[in-house]
Amino acid sequence: MQYSLFPKTKKKVSKLGFGAFGLKGVFGSFDETEAIGAMHYCWDQGVNFLDTARHYGESERIVGKALKSWSGDAPFLATKAECIGPVRQWGIPLDVEACFPKGHITREAENSLKELGVESIDLFQMHLYWPNWGVEGYWLDELNALQEQGKVGAIGVSMPDQRHDAALPLVLSGRIQSVQAVFNIFDPTPLDCLIPICAENEVAVLARCVLDEGGLTGFLSQETAFAEDDFRANYFDQGPRDLYLEKVGGLRKFLPEHAGSLASLALKFVTMHPGVTTALSSMNIREHAEANVAAMEEEPLSDEVFTEIRFYHRWIHNFYSGKSL
Questions:
Q1: Is there a domain that residue 320 lies in?
Q2: Residue 52 lies in a domain
Q3: Which range has the worst mean pLDDT, 56-60, 73-77, 205-209?
Q4: Could you list the residue range(s) of the whole structural domain that residue 213 is in?
């Protein structure tokens, strides 16, 4: 397993992180016992970073249950305060009072501590941030108070959509320790500004959607169907699907010389820059966890291949029309 140092805290964390979004059931039904087993497998393989959220249904409770039955070293735990307000708020910059009213962040942290069954959370994030909120205010005071009380270690924000540069004022203020943003082969734009600026300011970068909801693994075909409650029910069809498949097909030229699979290619791409602290992937299915762990054991991409993918395979799109945060 590859590791990096989480800025400011200097804790060693795995470059591959366990993303717990799947524990909400958004990618289909799953067996809770098997999901806990997948978590234990990841921790046993050195995947010591786990990211969840209050918004992820029963996720925190399930993670807490996994921690209780785990006898090894505790993983680096990250979670997020759920914002309130309109479902479509991810695309509409509202006032902070509408999303995180006074006292809400503190209550969310207390609930997370209870659900996870821990005394302290390594990283507590706001599940939304807009630059019109500024770089100071009661919401940041609440986060700092939680740090002072020892209830959370680092604090950060998760950006709601692909406009990740909106986090830069907060990054440059020196008031936070991490930013979570969409980053994958199709959308490598965080490499342009966010990642290098975070690195310069010792702010961690948590990459999410690294496999583009699984599309970059190559599992998708014209015949693939999803259940109505699956998060991806119409995700790949907004492209439209035939174009999406064409874009994924263009990446197969790098196999098997530069990567063992499309998933490996995608993970190796997003973890190559030293400014990326960890890449989050849903791994509550043991098979997916094993494939991702294996990808991290491959040789890194060459600079030439990395550059070719970055500049010639980017496909900037936003498939979250009609989706909730």
A1: no
A2: yes
A3: 56-60
A4: 3-312
